[in-house]
Amino acid sequence: MMNDHEATSSCCSASAPTPAAASNNHENLLGGVGKDITTCPVMVGNPVSKKAAEATGLYRDYEGERYYLCCGGCGPAFDSNPAKYAANMA
Q1: CA–CA separation, 1 and 20 (whole Å)
Q2: Separation of alpha carbons 2 and 14, rounded Å
Q3: In this predicted structure, what is the pLDDT of residue 68?
Q4: pTM to 2 decimals?
């Protein structure tokens, strides 16, 4: 069982991905670099293409807002405490 710190720091990688590479076996979701980019509320600072995240189902809706996730591991983390992760985007 992971605590909140472990879920946050280990879901994707320890560092943000570069726009040109998807080197940690996660699909690169920066399909429109410079366009529609936001950051992941779980792995704060990881850039995410809204369009690519929607196309792959990597988003969550919470209290009327849409949150885009950088990888599949962030979904369960967000689901476990959406208020916490939504606050990261405020």
Answers
A1: 33
A2: 16
A3: 97
A4: 0.66
